[in-house]
Amino acid sequence: MKDHMAELAQILKIDQTLLTVKEELEELPAKVRAVQTELKELETDYQKKKAEWDKLDTQVRQLKQQNSEDAEKLKVKEERLNSIKTTKEYQAVLKEIAAGKTSHKERETLVQQLSASWEKLAQELNPLEGRRQELGSSLEKEQGEISERLEALRSRLKEAEAQLQEHLGSLPEDIRHKFRRVQEKRQPAIARVVDGTCQECFINVPPQLFIEIQKKQEIHSCPNCHRLLFIQLD
Ligand SMILES: [Zn+2]
């Protein structure tokens, strides 16, 4: 029976490795997902601002273009004034020039306002662009690292599972059966007893039971968590 306790100690070790490996296996994809989510949110924000920026850019260009065309027209009209013979026509052209100047000025004001927003957006876009590239490459790198790590963990898992089966195989059928039943509910399914205390659920086992465990004649279960108990044999 002493050997069975030694087996249990081994099984617990393997079980703990298995649990750690499984935990990491579950956590790894979440890391990638977090970066993906951040990147997606950033992308949406970036695209929205970029579209606004493009729109402003086009507007400013068009307004500037229109103003430079109008300036040409005004120049032509002003030159024409010299050759006009009738007062009526002269007045009419003067009026046109005044109106042209007003709309030119209005457009210039608008260009200034739009340019200010354009500039502000450009400043917001800059860091977004940087972060976007940074996340993109970190995602790529992390995905590569994670898939390598996943591979290593999966083979470690397989190895530990094989070891576990081997150790379980050397236990009598009834202990193995108990082990499996506990394992369905809680893991690890084995607990060490130190100074009469179950090291998994931390209750003190009844003194009589502790005496029995110390005899190492039989494998007992914790009355609280039902894990198979052993005492360290070193
Ligand atoms: Zn317990």
List keywords for this structure.
single chain, 234 residues, mainly alpha, three-stranded mixed β-sheet, rod-shaped, binds zinc ion
Could you characterize the architecture of this molecule?
The chain folds into 2 domains: 151 residues, Helix Hairpins; 63 residues, no CATH class. The two termini are 15 Å apart. The chain is rod-shaped, with a radius of gyration of 40 Å. With 234 residues, it is mainly alpha-helical. Helices cover 79% and strands 4% of the residues. A 3-stranded mixed sheet has the order 2-1-3. β1 and β2 form a beta hairpin.
Helical amount among residues, as a percent range?
A: over 70%
In the residues, how many domains can be counted? 2
CATH architecture of the largest domain: Orthogonal Bundle
Strand content: under 5%
- Output mean pLDDT: 91
The shape is: rod-shaped
Query: According to CATH, what is the topology of the largest domain?
Result: Helix Hairpins
Oligomeric organization of the protein chains: single chain
Task: Count the E strands.
Answer: 3
**CATH class designation of the largest domain:** Mainly Alpha
Bound molecules: zinc ion
Q: Provide the gyration radius in Å.
A: 40 Å
Order of helices and strands: HHHEEHE
